[in-house]
Amino acid sequence: MRQPTRVTPEIPLQTTLRDYWDEVAAVAAKIDLESLEHVALMLLACQARKRVVFVVGNGGSAATASHFACDLGKGTRRDGPPTFRVVSLTDNMPLLTAWANDSGYDRVFAEQLQTLAHPGDVLVVISASGNSPNVIAAVETARSCGMDVVGLTGRSGGSLAQLVDVVVHVPSDRIEVVEDAHLVAAHSLCVAVRERLAAGEPPASTPGLSVVRGRRAGR
User: Fold this and answer.
1) Are 150 and 124 in contact (CB under 8 A)?
2) Closest to 90 measured CA to CA, from 64, 121, 114
3) Among 48, 74, 111, 153, whose CB has the most other CB atoms within 10 angstroms?
4) Count of domains forming the chain
């Protein structure tokens, strides 16, 4: 007589959902707030210099780059003139695909920076692996242009963690959790700089990058 097939009970969906939220919360609790503070100071100093913040990323990180550029440019603004000059280099698809076609995908951000960047600008690089060739090329170009560089990373931090002025590292190997944390980091930065500016403190009094470099934030 044939034995009935044993059915393994499925894991309840709510259990999977709860486990994921618990993982996000645990990783969020490990984020180095001192590094985030240094990034906020860098952004404020850039704004005070009337320079430009550029943001780059691939895939989900490209969406985060666009989101961050939107929030930093609009979400930090109070009454009066625009607060931040910010550009996401992921948004001009005709230009991005032209560089990818003619010079290779590794150069899609670097070539844009070569044209647009000036000394005193800031580059924010978002990469879960920290090893994407096009973001590494962007950092190298930023250095040659006299820019300051921030890295948002995950996993081991990759090569990027050793190349930037300040790194905000998300200690997780799960790509979804890293990307979640990067967006929360971006939101927290926008809230922090908006409240600092709303308090009426002169942006020029904000410590510059020399303070950040001296402490090697997030390394």
Assistant:
1) yes
2) 64
3) 153
4) 1
Q: What is the pLDDT along the chain (219 residues), one digit of tens a residue?
A: 556 555 556 888 999 999 999 999 999 999 999 999 999 999 999 999 999 999 999 999 999 999 999 999 998 887 766 689 999 999 999 999 999 999 999 999 999 999 999 999 999 999 999 999 999 999 999 999 999 999 999 999 999 999 999 999 999 999 999 999 999 999 999 999 999 988 876 554 444 443 344 334 444
Length of the chain measured in residues: 219
Q: Decide: 112 and 95 in contact? Cβ < 8 Å.
A: yes
For the entire predicted model, the pTM comes to 0.87
Residue 5 included in any domain: no
Residue 120 within any structural domain of the chain: yes
Residues spanned by the domain of 104: 34-201
